[in-house]
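Go through this chain.

——
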Amino acid sequence: MIKILIADDHSVVRRGIKQILSDETDMQVLGEASNSDEIFSQLEKQPWDLLILDITMPGKSGLDCLIEIKQKKPELKILILSMHPEEEIAVRAIKTGADGYLNKDSVPGELIRAIKKVINGGKYISSSLAETLIFSVNKDAGKEPHDDLSEREFQVLCLLASGYSLTQIADKFSLSVKTISTYRSRILEKMDLKSNVDLTHYAIKHKLVLND
């Protein structure tokens, strides 16, 4: 029996995943988490075979959690579930240690296949993402400006460019508005941008805007 933990801050998404998996006799959802603290609490309760992890979570981001979990429990399979487009963000997740990446729009038709593949030791990615990964690995040119951002800065970049206010981002990550404002300042400085408008134009060009 594949023991599955679902981590997503939207209860409707967790319910939907449980419904999709309800007819599978060899899979069982035995735990849920809505933020990073709950994830780490659940991970200590029992051995898990698979963590289905939302990339945008309150508290630590999904990518931050991914890094820490892979350090502590390298054998645990992690399937990223996200509303982000399958390109720069997906590549970052796979390089960070994710065993698979699924866009939330594709969940109903692909979730079962993705779980079976990662549990059997494979990596689950779409053909378009595979091409992007190959290009990324083979690219010898200089890095893009956003490649030098920390995981949290990268998350804030994507959210700002997608129209989220500082207050909304602060609420999403359970941080202060002042802290998010500091992240914004660091992002603009690191990327040599002057304003949110510049940031948004950059994000659109590099396909980093979220499809919420």
